[in-house]
Amino acid sequence: MTAQRVFDLVIAANRLPVDRVVGDDGSSEWHRSPGGLVTAMDSVMRHREGAWVGWAGETGEAPEPFEDAGMWLHPVPLSEDERETFYEGFSNDTLWPIYHDVIVPAHFHREWWRSYRTVNERFADAVCEVAAPGAKVWIHDYQLQLVPAMVRERRPDVRIGWFNHIPFPPVELFAQLPWRSRILEGLLGADYLGFQRTPDAQNFLRACRQLDGRTTKGDLVSTQDPDGTGRRVRASAVPISVDYHGLEELARTESVRERARAIRASLGDPEVVMLGVDRLDYTKGIRHRLKAYEELLADGTISSPEVTFIQVATPSRERVAAYQHLRTEVETVVGHINGAYSAIGAPAVHYLHQSYPREEMAALFQAADIMLVTPLRDGMNLVAKEYVTCRHDDGGALVLSEFTGASHELRQAFVCNPHDIEGLKQVMLHVISLPAKDKRRAMRALRRRVADNDVQRWADTFLTNLETAPERPSRPTTK
Ligand code: GDG
């Protein structure tokens, strides 16, 4: 047994920042796990001491808690059934669609909800085990919305914050959830609730008012704990960002710059390289950008290989049916475009259903003249900010969907509505033909914006908001 340690800062997220990778010889190693939350929080936690509570990514018994890169990792177990019902089911097939404008239908199953509650209880227990008296507990994302109230019930001494990485839906969509009041109650266990954009915080406040008749004033909601104590909870926007300095430094290394040149050379040095980088997810608008590219090729406005498109589609949630359908659709369209418009040795679309190291991503960003970020809905979209960060040469151009959180900050991006294929084509053509000096001016402004608002600033702001949330915590209790 590992000795129990306690910490003043505890992070709880569905996944730990590492995955166990088992080699052919049966030996196992921990590798960094993919996704926006881990990318952001990993760099935040490297500058702070604390514990991270999360699932290690494999079902069955959880590994013993261990230290990795100066962080204390406390694994929470999930059974095979819970992976299907809590993770793939309620989290990714009920909440994810509802919170992303129901781009695909949401599925409601009572046994999925029961499993969600059970797993949230387990996370709350784990958090309480590692939280020191009076600790700050920072809970993340839609998979753990009941944890704030569950932790408060067990440990009234700790400060509880929750941050939503994805959008919070309009009340008309949130209202569809049969368990909507339970979710609001769960969240209101927190002292502070952080959202990507002000409209997300407003959607939450409106849900509290309209669905549960709670009183709100400004960004505060009044609530009552089970013991009758009245409290106010603050809900406001604190937009996430990237590790600007760390990533820029990586992008400036000679090996990454050399790799960027090599990527362009291996494509035959096209006039224009367009790039998409996404988890293979139906929210990301991958089909829409492929359609726009295909139509431009079909009507002869552009031609391949002069204009070449690279799409990195990182494997994601491969056991959920909607993701399997999306993969089939995307691969069919890519096959169709390549069949019609490629030359030997020069495919029109380079489709990469793979995951790459950070260095390769930085090189790809530098190799791309136009970055296409076209989600139908996205909490923030870190890829947009990473692209800008890597362009230390002030080169490149960012095409950005108005339905991303990032578009609320990155005002100098070339904005598109991905549903409007004609409009998307026009934006692509506009950027292709725009004088370089205009694109450089836009890129410089974008880079300043991200440099001034990096991920450390985001974490500092969140933790300050948590610290100064309206009600003081009750006296620390000894365990
Ligand atoms: C959620 C919200 C919000 C992707 N492929 C590879 C790779 N990635 C990295 C990207 C980026 C991250 O994964 C993806 O972040 P996004 O923000 O684009 O999207 P989600 O995964 O949907 O993230 C989102 C985010 O949480 C943070 O709050 O912005 O709205 O949906 O960092 O670079 N990284 C590497 N290889 C890959 O193949 N190394």
Automatic annotation (TrEMBL):
<keyword id="KW-0328">Glycosyltransferase</keyword>
<protein>
    <submittedName>
        <fullName>Trehalose-6-phosphate synthase</fullName>
        <ecNumber>2.4.1.15</ecNumber>
    </submittedName>
</protein>
<keyword id="KW-0808">Transferase</keyword>
<dbReference type="Pfam" id="PF00982">
    <property type="entry name" value="Glyco_transf_20"/>
</dbReference>
<comment type="similarity">
    <text>Belongs to the glycosyltransferase 20 family.</text>
</comment>
<dbReference type="InterPro" id="IPR001830">
    <property type="entry name" value="Glyco_trans_20"/>
</dbReference>
<dbReference type="GO" id="GO:0003825">
    <property type="term" value="F:alpha,alpha-trehalose-phosphate synthase (UDP-forming) activity"/>
</dbReference>
